[in-house]
Design a protein that fits this description.
By secondary structure, the protein is an alpha/beta fold. The chain has helices spanning 16-21, 31-35, 114-118, 142-148, 185-194, 210-218, 229-240, 320-334, 360-370; strands at 8-13, 23-25, 42-46, 49-53, 58-60, 73-79, 82-87, 152-154, 200-203, 221-226, 251-255, 270-275, 338-348, 351-353, 356-358, 374-382, 406-413. Helix 5 (185-194) crosses helix 6 and helix 8 runs parallel beside helix 9. The radius of gyration is 22 Å and the shape is globular. Bound molecules: S-adenosylmethionine (SAM).
Length: 415
């Protein structure tokens, strides 16, 4: 699929009416860049949410209503996925002092999708920089290889021999920040096992950036995408904190729909794609905490709906048919970006809903195969040590396994 990327980027300050009514008045001098010769009015997307450009050059979306405060400076960019806006928080990210003309402002690579900035694909390294044998899949030793072949892995570590998965101080386990985060050690394990230093890692559903942090620690270039601005901002802040390595590799969090990834990356450059996608609309219910012991059930998350967003492009809002289709579309776009025999790891769990088991891992398997990936391995993330407060449910007649005690880690490659 050839995707044409239209690019532009404009800085402007929001006025009171714009904030309260939910629009951006695109400055007249920038209409050609942002709107081109498209016939107005037209429907579009703004940060993945439905939007419309009217005949006066105003970009309207519910996304905008009271989202920013008056006088916030925003960066508007456009590519073939629609418009993206970000608050211009240059102070937090050590920008150069403001230039006289806001239009001459050039952000750091990690601030705005560079594809939208430069008119070209993202400039990011993907070639191995270590001196180990290039016939090897990664830099690991034979001894490490044997450990990583164990199909069931557990964390936090209980066994000194198996140190792959563990929670550390930087892991965020507060569900109010993000409801479904994996530990940094999980992507770190697969990045180490399946890539060399300097190579490129992709996370299509990056959340608050655990994969990017793991890549930064290990000297791998990495790009991650998420639909939610708040998560992308958290990813960037986490990446700006103390680094273990400072070796010139880049880790970039981009606010965009995973469907648009081919607009950013060159073909045959990605050495590992790793993610934990939404598990269809599993979070779109009031949380009942049924797997937690009765007296502990009514914790601060009880009866809360913890879905990521209401964005219709959010896979976490989709029913299982829509979900499988979206996964297939997204991974069909990713396949050409990957190098031959590059691995693609997906961490997923099945869902228990209305007294039925929803086999999400089977949907993922089917969708990835239809997208052209070849299935290679299943790993089980053994979570028994994390669910010591479990309750009994189903007893004595409805036999239900405790889904919270494990997750699938499915491994594919580009044949
Ligand atoms: C399970 S979370 C990933 C969490 C991540 N592994 C971490 O540790 O932070 C899935 C993420 O997918 C994002 N998402 C859902 N639909 C998306 C789409 N169409 N494109 C990009 N991101 C999407 C959600 O906003 C959510 O943050």
């Amino acid at each position: 699929m050839q995707i044409e990327v239209m690019v532009a980027m404009v800085v402007k300050t929001l006025k009171k009416m714009e904030v309260s009514l939910g629009f951006i008045h695109i400055p007249v001098q920038h209409r050609a860049e942002l709107i081109g010769d498209s016939a107005v009015p037209f429907e579009t997307k703004l940060n993945g949410v439905a939007a419309k450009v009217d005949k006066f050059g105003r970009l309207w979306s519910d996304y905008l209503k009271n989202r920013f405060t008056v006088n916030t400076q925003i960066i508007i960019s456009k590519n073939n996925g629609g418009f993206q806006i970000l608050a211009n928080e240059r102070k937090n990210y050590n920008f150069e002092p403001e230039t006289k003309s806001p239009n001459a402002f050039v952000p750091l690579a990690a601030e705005v999708p560079p594809a939208a900035d430069s008119g070209k694909k993202l400039k990011i390294g993907f070639v191995k920089t270590c001196d180990c044998d290039s016939r090897h899949i990664s830099c690991i030793t034979a001894k490490e290889w044997v450990k990583s072949q164990v199909a069931i892995q557990q964390f936090p570590i209980t066994n000194d021999e198996i140190k792959e998965f563990y929670y550390e101080g930087r892991d965020i386990r507060d569900k109010d920040v993000h409801p479904a985060v994996f530990p940094i050690a999980l992507p770190a394990h697969f990045i180490k096992t399946l890539t060399h230093r300097g190579e490129l890692v992709l996370d299509p559903f990056v959340g608050i950036g655990s994969t990017l942090l793991a890549a930064q620690d290990l000297g791998r270039n990495a790009v991650g995408f998420d639909l939610k601005e708040e998560y992308i901002e958290i990813s960037r802040k986490r990446l700006g904190q103390k680094k273990i390595l400072d070796d010139g590799t880049q880790q970039i969090a981009i606010l965009d729909d995973a469907h648009n990834i081919p607009a950013y990356l060159e073909e045959n450059t990605v050495s590992l794609c790793i993610t934990s996608p939404p598990y269809a609309n599993m979070l779109a219910h009031r949380r009942l905490n049924k797997s937690i012991r009765g007296d502990l059930r009514k914790n601060s998350h009880y009866l809360k709906v913890q879905q990521y967003s209401n964005n219709p492009s959010d896979l976490g809002t989709m029913n299982h048919e829509g979900y499988s289709k979206a996964i297939q579309e997204i991974y069909s776009g990713i396949l050409p970006l990957m190098r031959k025999r590059a691995h693609c790891i997906i961490n997923v769990n099945d869902v228990w809903e209305n007294n039925k088991r929803i086999p999400t891992h089977v949907y993922i398997l089917g969708a990835l195969q239809k997208a052209g990936f070849e299935f290679r391995n299943t790993f089980i993330w053994d979570k028994r040590n994390l669910v010591n407060r479990v309750g009994i449910f189903g007893w004595p007649s409805n036999f239900i396994s405790l889904g919270a005690t494990m997750e699938f880690i499915l491994d594919f490659w580009k044949p």
